[in-house]
């Protein structure tokens, strides 16, 4: 690419609030993060969503004449609609015209498009969606994966998730020697079903990661772990439960703090503190999940994403590009393959 600036393709037609909120978040990212955004979708709808004073010469719109609805079967829709916005966005990455994709549309369609058009990284059997959660320790997030890409997982898949998650945690989240846990029903290595016991053993024997044992549900947000692996069924339930808890906490604060004169005065005094609380527990601040394991940067946002979430999703994509996450994962597995060949 001619420019060294990070270029992110945005699925402008994906999500409950497309294209208006998607476009607003992308424009904010363009201004504050210095990224180039490629708005992919129906040009007329995208232009109608732009602020009235926007200079169209400074906005790059890539035409896509189709879109995939939330109720469509993902794989068949991807194949039936080659000009869907998510397909066009993935092709931009495949053809080196963009460094990454952000979509708040059909998550299954985004994953299918990524697999079909970008393919898996060598050595990776299944991609995983990683989501960042806040913990009790400020500025110490935990990365959970998988949160929806794979309903059922073999122990080998969980081991690969742990390796990819550790790389992401170290180089993007800035965690030194990330501590890995396996989500389970007890701390003891013997707890859980046969798959969990075998996964525990494989993780413990893997020298590429710092595995410290099983993580129970109460440990997820404790700050003890930096990376926690699980199958996508459990991970998706956990993700949506955590989001609901965060929404409830924020709603309770809004309702209860302003009660009475003392509450109104206190709310005014505590406004900076409340803003920090929101930043820690509001899932909109985390933007979405990075699809790890495919040969391209792909951020899958919530279907209900509004402008702040889209902005943060683009930020995550930029950080993944800047920190060479794909190259580091690929290098890790290439080194592992060489070691296995030399030992034979």
TrEMBL record:
It catalyses: a fatty acyl-[ACP] + phosphate = an acyl phosphate + holo-[ACP]. It is an enzyme of class 2 (transferase). Its main location: cytoplasm. Pathway: Lipid metabolism; phospholipid metabolism. The keyword Cytoplasm applies. InterPro entries: FA_synthesis, Phospholipid_synth_PlsX-like. Belongs to the PlsX family. Catalyzes the reversible formation of acyl-phosphate (acyl-PO(4)) from acyl-[acyl-carrier-protein] (acyl-ACP). This enzyme utilizes acyl-ACP as fatty acyl donor, but not acyl-CoA. Homodimer. Probably interacts with PlsY. This is Phosphate acyltransferase. It comes from Plectonema radiosum NIES-515.
